[in-house]
Specification:
With 209 residues, the chain is mostly helical. It has helices at 4-7, 10-25, 29-40, 43-65, 70-74, 76-99, 112-126, 129-142, 149-174, 177-184, 187-207. α2 (10-25) runs antiparallel to α8 (129-142).
């Protein structure tokens, strides 16, 4: 009988899980989207969006862990291209937050909007080059070159679980009636502040890459 220690590379799994937690905890476009869904729509919509984020994170993690991410490491031009796209994405999303009006709160929106929130989570994360670069380039360096199937599967599950737990927790917290009532009135100001921060981050990384 094969022991569980032989099947799973626990140090590598813990490293990937820790890196994934750091990745989702860094404020960015996903945080802004979850906050908007939680404050102006419903808790279930925020939870649905977090599942969309998790699916895409798991996809990028699978690509990176299986070795496709080494293309970014060994081809400098590809890494630079993704960095430029990532910076451009941050600037674009930040500008969108500054100029786009904030819709009125719609607590208790119909069930179909939860599907829309899931699809929006998929689309937002899959078009985010920063997410692709992080998971393909960084996580690929943490995964063993000859990782077993169970190790790879658990790594991917850990990445998805980290995204669901983190973003769902944010959505749950921000959708609490007392918090939603307090911050919902200032959502426009929050978006402006986040937009300015994202633009500044994108410009800073673009000038210092």
């Amino acid at each position: 009988m094969i022991s569980s220690n032989a099947m799973f590379d626990w140090p590598a799994i813990v490293a990937v899980c820790s890196a994934s937690l750091v990745g989702v905890a860094i404020p960015g476009a996903n945080f802004v989207a979850i906050a908007n869904r939680a404050l102006r729509c419903s808790r279930l919509q925020a939870l649905s969006m977090s599942c969309g984020f998790a699916v895409v994170n798991s996809l990028w993690a699978t690509i990176g862990i299986l070795g496709v991410g080494t293309l970014v490491v060994h081809h400098a031009w590809l890494g630079q291209l993704l960095q430029v796209l990532g910076c451009g994405y941050l600037i674009w999303f930040g500008t969108r937050l500054l100029v786009r009006p904030v819709p009125a709160p719609q607590q208790g929106a119909p069930h179909v909007n939860r599907k829309s929130a899931f699809r929006e989570g998929l689309a937002l994360n899959i078009t985010n080059p920063k997410s692709l670069l992080y998971y393909c380039a960084f996580l690929s360096s943490l995964a063993p070159a000859a990782a077993s199937g169970p190790t790879v599967a658990l790594m991917v599950l850990a990445v998805g679980a980290c995204a669901v737990v983190w973003y769902s927790s944010l959505g749950w917290l921000l959708s609490m009636p007392s918090i939603a009532a307090r911050f919902g009135r200032h959502l426009g100001k929050i978006n402006v502040a986040c937009g300015a921060l994202l633009i500044a981050t994108g410009l800073f990384e673009l000038m210092n890459r």
